[in-house]
Amino acid sequence: MMADCTRREFFGWLGGLASTALYRPLPPSTTQDSLPGTGPSGKLWDPSRAGRPLPPVTARDNDAAIQAIEKQLKCTCGCNQDVYTCRTTDFNCTTSPAMHQRVLQLADRGKTAQAIIDQFVRENGVQILMAPPKRGFNLAGYFLPSALILAAAAVLVLALRRWARAAAATPAPPAPPATPASPAALDATAAELEQLRRELDRLPG
Amino acid sequence: MTVLGNLALWVAFLVGIWGALTGFMGGLLGRADLQQSARHAVFAMCAALLTAVFALEWALFHHDFNVEYVAAYTSRNLPIFYTWSALYAGQKGSLLFWASVLSVFGSLALTFTSRRHAPLLPYVAGVVCAVAAFFVTVMLFAANPFARLAFTPLDGNGLNPQLQNPGMVFHPPMLYLGYISMTIPYAFAMAALLSRRLDTDWLVAIRKWTLVSWLFLSIGLLLGMWWAYVELGWGGYWAWDPVENAALLPWLTMTAFLHSVMIQEKRGMLKKWNLALVIGSWLLSVMGTFITRSGVISSVHSFTQSPVGYYFLVFLILAAAASFTLYARRLPLLDAEARLESMVSREASFLFNNLLLVGIAFSVLWGTLFPILSELVQGTKVTVGPPFFNQVNIPLGLALLALTGIGPLIAWRRASLPNLKRQFAVPLTTGGFVGLILLVGGMRDGWALMAIALAGFVAATVGQEFARGARARHRQYGEPYALALARLVGRNRRRYGGYIVHTGILILFVAFAGMAFKTETQVTLRPGERATIRSPYGWTYRLTHLGISQYDALNRQVTAATLEVERDGKRLGVMTTEKRQHVDGLGRPTFQPSTEVGIRSDLREDLYIVLGGVVNGTEQAVFRFTINPLVWWVWYGGVVLVLGGLVVMWPGGGSPAVRRVQAGYAVRLVGKQ
């Protein structure tokens, strides 16, 4: 049977035999895709595309008291955000998760919120706080704008009172004649204009 | 093309210096030939700078990666949309953008300004040329966008993924247009000071420019907020970042100017103040560009690292010194033509409004610069973040909101007690009623409650103004109310457009108050698992993790998590949030993976979903779910604000008869003093 087959048929038969002999089913892990709910392992095709691997969220990650502390502490990765915002926004950052763990560690030791914050200040300096503490020169930061606005408002009130008194003491000059425009130049009758003037006078501005 | 670009920059530089010299000399000596030469110099500089823009865009679109700027901000697979916007993605390109748009604005100002203001125009040309020449100088000697690399990379770095967002395509140019267009009012102010023509004429010449500038800044700020919200993934839209603050500062002072200029126009008062506001706004806009591009606030040592910082600092100091020296010398010519007559008057309320707007601007500037001051005074760096700014600025903002309502209710010159009673009765009752309802409804956040109650007061003020105006027209002309309302706005666009802007502001304040009730939680879900969260409105959301898919798209590799969303048992649909790994044309990762937020908006709240990452390379994913109340109203309020601004700007307004009568009314008021 093989003797009367063509060369093309022979090599085709040989190739088929070789591929059958060499065939090995690929391991399931490499044939799985990440379609929703499929695959025995649920592995992603390329986990590196999904960013830094994360640990599962624990109940303490959502603890309001811990979050309140972390919102007062600045992440030192250079993002200018607080620790809570950074660790729940920039998932590439490794600094804020470490700071979060430090907060949890200190809380586990029974430290109060203020004691935890004080500990961070001792370890990192006052710039670790999202807002400067209200003491010394920092008081100027908090209160100078409001104080200046109040002072300016007081000066303004005094000036206004003086101007008002001066205006009251000065007799009003006689009213100039109305705008020199002949009724013919206007596309409204004199009666309409008078009525409009009255309406305008009644409006506040 | 880089040869052409460099040549164009040198031409612009030389022509700019020539234009500045001939503009000032022509104005001071009264020589028509020099004045004409300055005018031509502005047009020539405009042509040269547009040629430079063309050369840079050519290099960007032709992927000439030997040009350092092209290699730094684009890649072969960057969409065309973003390739165009790479023009202003980096410092060097944005300097070119600044200078070229300024030269276009300068040309427009010289072409379309009425001949009535001709004596001011040589100085305007001089200022425009001087400012543009400064930017070209920075490009030529410190930040040349046409600088070449010693080698040609196969592909560029690509654009930062966070900049690959439509909001970021329009946000920076809008802000820049706002900053740049402010140069024209500043140029007219300097022209008025130099030529000693300090009547209200120069104000008429800049009226449209100040509105254009304010409008662009407003749109830029709003687009920036939108971009931050949809792209950055932290669930908010304003973080009091130094760069955000830098854009807010000139907006605040320009808003103050748009109010106080009315007093100068109607009563001939506040000349000194208005000039100071125009000069200050322009200096703040230059400072905004400086802060944005130098990074001076995040590090006090960045002056030593960036030569551009030095250039801007020197320019700011010189411009401020020159402007205020000239201003001080002209003070005797700036006496008011009238005096305020009563503390209870529209003029006085505008003064307090100006005090608050400038006070808030100072407060924001103070907070932004405080880390530098603290290091200088205490030798200690401090961080000034949102807690500081909120504490200082929320009370001031609410006081401003209250004045937004009070101002329009008080008559010009002097308000009588019966007039005040009549004007305030409905708005005060409305505000009190809104506050009471919220209190009874269980709202316990003091600031939010005050903000919404004050918004109710302002809304009633605006409603009352429209209702009275429409009723007056209805009585006068027998027009139906809808027509009367339309004509009322159409014929007095400045006043009623202003009220529409006030409406936008009050909507924004209500939306800001909504963020007091933001809730968020982090969860880990396997496919098929669900999380339940409760919204501030008492709704229960149920989010089921359907799974994660990965695929390639355009210039990125996408990991997308899909969730099914139900609210109170009713299916709302499917939402997707992504991690994106951007790659260059050769498939190499360019930046760290970025997050694409899933947002579902309605009038009451936004559901905001962020894919944090995956656990152990599986489909088990970490999500952050945030519910942001009233965010939609920020964008809606912004649209109303911009529409109001457009109404104010729209040319025309009223029949000639009505305008003449109103002019007569204003003349009569001034004449009565």
Helical content class of chain A: 40-55%
Q: What ranges of chain A have pLDDT less than 50 throughout 5 or more consecutive residues?
A: 22-35, 37-41, 175-188
User: Could you give the order of the helices and strands of chain A?
Assistant: HHHHHHHH
Beta strand % of chain B? 5-15%
- The counted number of beta strands of chain B is 9
CATH architecture of the domain at 59-128 in chain A: Orthogonal Bundle
The total of helices of chain A stands at 8
Cα shape of chain B = globular
What's the number of extended β-strand segments of chain A? Answer: 0
Q: What can you see in these coordinates?
A:
- By secondary structure, chain A is mostly helical.
- Chain A is built from eight helices and no strands.
- Among the domains of chain A are: 1-50, no CATH class; 59-128, Helicase, Ruva Protein, domain 3 (Orthogonal Bundle), CATH 1.10.8.
- Chain A has helices at residues 7-22, 28-31, 64-70, 83-87, 95-108, 113-124, 138-169, 190-202.
- The radius of gyration of chain A is 40 Å and the shape is elongated.
- Chain B has a domain at 518-632: Tick-borne Encephalitis virus Glycoprotein, domain 1.
- Helix content of chain B is 64%, strand content 11%.
- Chain B is built from 21 helices and nine strands.
- In chain B, helix 9 (201-232) runs antiparallel to helix 20.
- Chain B is globular, with a radius of gyration of 27 Å.
- Residues 299-305 and 660-673 of chain B have low confidence and may be disordered.
- Chains A and B meet through helix 7 and helix 8 of A and helix 14, helix 15, helix 17, strand 1 and strand 3 of B.
